[in-house]
Amino acid sequence: MALCFLFVYTEVLGQGTLSEDAGVFMRESQMLNKVFWESPLTYFKFLTGVGETQPLIETYLPETTHWDIGAQSLINDNKNILRVHSLIHFISFNSETAHALVCCFVGLMGVKHLYITGKSMVTINSSIVFWVLLLLPSVFFWSSSILKEPFMLLGLGLFLRGVFHDDTIRKKILFGVIGGFLLLGFKPYVIFMLIPMLIFLAAAKWLPKYKIAGAFLILGVFAGLAFTLFPKPKEKAIQTISRKQFDFVQVGRGGLHVYADSVFYYFRTDQIASLNRDHDTVWLKRDVNAQILKLGQISDPVPILLKKENGERWIKYFENTQSNGFIPVTPINNSYTQLIKNIPEALYHTLLRPLPGDPGGALNWIAFLETIVLFGALLLAISRRKKLSEQEKIRVAGLILFALLLSLIIGWTTPVLGAIARYRIPVYIVILMITGILYQEKSKSLKHE
Taken in order 318, 321, 325, 330, is the CA torsion positive or negative? Predict the structure, then answer.
């Protein structure tokens, strides 16, 4: 499957060379690896983040586009995947297959820990649990990639094992902490969406009765107090979601970003004909309405009329065509009211799309069939569900909470079907776990008795 991934990203999505994020990560991690041979001390500053400065970035990594994303994100997970691949370059001799082999091992370890967690929660044959987890198309494909997903799967497997598996307290803490750090480093939004589930599970365990209703009430009170007492973080949260959506829409729709001192100008694909170009330099043929973007900031884009008579020239920063899987999403525009109105759209996009007729290639059909089989199995499990114990009800409620929150954040911000299929992997894994819990004919403890 790793060879299949490399073929898709080289021949199908690319033109004979590794393309998209996979190509960027390979190229820029190689640039980072080369820093070691120029200045080992500087390399270790980049590797650890200790002592890294903007002048160092401009000196040693000026051509990278994924290393420095400014202040928009608290954690730059792109840096971490570049760091990992820069280390692999020491033994891979720039072989893409060697990088894929390492990532396959990491992804398989993630599947292993998900299997250990899942088999303890269901009475389905353990071999079936393993093979279903491994061969779930989205897991099988993306765990074989050289992107962030293998590391996310390992983090998720370790974290859920720490939360749900019947290990010693020491092991549960160890697995949970390691898994949490992996998720924080490679997919921060996943661990952030797991935190409400943890609060819910802790509250349900503490309450003497009405555990599920009481836990949801406590979670709601915490959320309400957070929004009331901390208005600035609340405002920053909606700005961040809106800006993430805006940036993703621009990338999905395609266009050209040029660097102009401390800001960027963004031109839509239909405006590129109004530009002159010479290698990496861009200037105007005629007056154009563009947008001002600040690197890594969450402030709103600012419209600007750029005039040809000023004779300005800019450096091309990033250019792409419209994604084959681009779909329109309703702009949030920093409005919590609009955010709430977008809930049905967000859940529909994340949980059910792509559908037949949606934009994209043949891989859409694989994702569609996976969705049909997954939700078909869930409906079958619901129709044949056993009487759940109180602990099982709490687990199911907590997993549903996580799946819904993660589905919302993906659906609110992501306008590209291929990206949705990648980002929702934890959601589909959790749906599998819920299906297994519901389908049990009797609890494992009764079975042992």
Answer: positive
